[in-house]
Amino acid sequence: MFDKSTWIKLPRNVLQGHGVLDDLADAVAELYLSGNPLLVTSPTPERIAGDRIRAQFDGISSVSLDRASFESVERVVEIAREKDVGYLIALGGGKPIDVAKMASDHLDCGFVSVPTAASHDGIVSGRSSIPEGDTRHSVAADPPLAVVADTELLAEAPWELTTAGCADIISNYTAVKDWELAHRLKNVEYSEYAGALSQMTAEMLVGSADSIKPGLEESAWIVTKALVSSGVAMSIAGSSRPASGAEHLFSHQLDRIAPGSALHGHQVGVGSILTEYFHSGARGEWMDIRDALSTMGAPTTADELGIDDETVIEALTTAHEIRDRYTILGDGVSEDAAIEAATITGVI
Ligand SMILES: NC(=O)C1=CN([C@@H]2O[C@H](COP(=O)(O)OP(=O)(O)OC[C@H]3O[C@@H](n4cnc5c(N)ncnc54)[C@H](O)[C@@H]3O)[C@@H](O)[C@H]2O)C=CC1
Ligand SMILES: O=C(CO)COP(=O)(O)O
Ligand SMILES: [Zn+2]
């Protein structure tokens, strides 16, 4: 008997373009949601766009959070129940979007994603990435019902946030290699469609490198399209595997050892140089990753991340412990091997 089944959840509306933030209420009206919204944001996005969103909704409440954590999720759930809200609007970078995504899952209500930075591919994904103690959970949640990505707003964000988004996409190269490896060695379920989409997204972004420049709104357009596409790959896979391999484990470990030092996307980009070296060594494909990052203005060294060499080596040698996800790191990289890889690639 044929017994396979799959359930792919995707956003219903994706609006992307100049000034579309002011169409948020229209995009929400199209979803036939009931009740009032709760705006879930963090301090800077709140300052940048909070009032523009509140002006479009009667009876809206707001909560501003400092970090992504299970406590923040609980706080949002509590406020949403207290105010009896019908749905959530997530405004900001990856952290408020992840918190709102998970809270909406707990509340069994929908949410709408309004990114203020093209810095990560969680804009559309059906995963929520939340740290807890020594580990980081990639929790299944529903993707947003709608995404409203205003390229005018995204283009005004500090340029480094956009280069972080580019690096999060470039890391798809190694994420897919890790996923294929895990499929071959550990029989981890693999989706060829999701793997191909993720890799093609990275290739198309790298192919558009000449148009990705500070001050060009088209850059925000190109990067956001790639972030949406990568998020869709995660939704097709039903896991973050297409966009998160060993380079992400390295970054999650840096978040633990040296919290707040660098942006998620920048960390995974440098992680990708290192893990590509482990994948293909002397063939030099790590140089392609490094050059693509460097062309887009993303960091390629520990120094540019603002992280010292010892911390990079500690993160690289312990990254395999952070989550039960088989990657090129296997059961761990020795300190000597980590130092050699980081030295040859020029990361340290
Ligand atoms: N769920 C998923 O599938 C994914 C989740 N993530 C998660 O997302 C997070 C990384 O996302 P980030 O956006 O880097 O984090 P973030 O939300 O902390 O934002 C980074 C910084 O940019 C600021 N910012 C945002 N928009 C701004 C604007 N327009 N102008 C000035 N400053 C602005 C924020 O206030 C913050 O200080 C990580 O926790 C990562 O694990 C990343 C990729 C995928
Ligand atoms: O950051 C991600 C993809 O870019 C996904 O995060 P996780 O590694 O937590 O699943
Ligand atoms: Zn990422």
Attached small molecules: 1,4-dihydronicotinamide adenine dinucleotide, 1,3-dihydroxyacetonephosphate, zinc ion
Distance between the termini: 55 Å
Strand line-up in the sheet with most strands:
1-8-5-4-2-3
Listing every helix as H and every strand as E from the N terminus to the C terminus, the arrangement reads EHEHEHEHEEEEHHHHHHHHHHH
% residues in beta strands: 5-15%
| Helical percentage | 40-55%
Report the mean per-residue pLDDT as an integer: 96
CATH architecture of the largest domain: Up-down Bundle
- The CATH superfamily name of the largest domain is Dehydroquinate synthase-like - alpha domain
Q: Strand pairing plus helix content: what structural class?
A: alpha/beta
Shape: globular
Cofactor: Zn(2+)
Binding site for glycerol: 121, 168, 248, 264
Keywords: Cytoplasm, Lipid biosynthesis, Lipid metabolism, Metal-binding, NAD, NADP, Oxidoreductase, Phospholipid biosynthesis, Phospholipid metabolism, Zinc
Binding site for substrate: 121, 168, 252
